[in-house]
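Posted in: Protein Modeling Q&A

I'm a second-year student putting together a small comparison for a lab meeting, and my supervisor asked me to include a predicted structure for Zn-dependent oxidoreductase. I've never done this before, so apologies if this is the wrong subforum. The sequence is pasted below exactly as I got it from our records. If anyone can share the structure token output, I'd also love a short note on what stands out.
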Amino acid sequence: MSQNNSKREVACTLTEEQEAERREDVRARLVDHYLGYEEHENGVVVRFDGTDESLEALAKFTSNELQCCAFAEYEIAVSPPYEETVLTVTGPDGMAEMFQDGFADRLDVESD
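Accepted answer (user: helix_wrangler)
Welcome! Here is the predicted structure, written out as tokens:
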């Protein structure tokens, strides 16, 4: 069942303390693997290098996100020649902006 229902509330359930811990975890696990992102109509596509470490870190990140941002759909793709691991996050109106501001933009700043 698709969660791209515009009536779903876009809200993260993390406390400020949990948000700080998540931010540090993303910094420690994903920043070094980050390649870039693109915003699409219903979400964002975030690209990472194709290493085993980035795939494992992205799977852990996604598992955590399912707990606090259950309004979104997450898809991890790894395709030959395995040079990139791609996370696509889609959802209702407002989701793309939330993930861009809270995740992709943060990766951009941290990776500079």
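A couple of things worth pointing out for your meeting: Residues 1-5 have pLDDT under 50 and may be disordered. The helical segments are 16-29, 52-68, 95-111.
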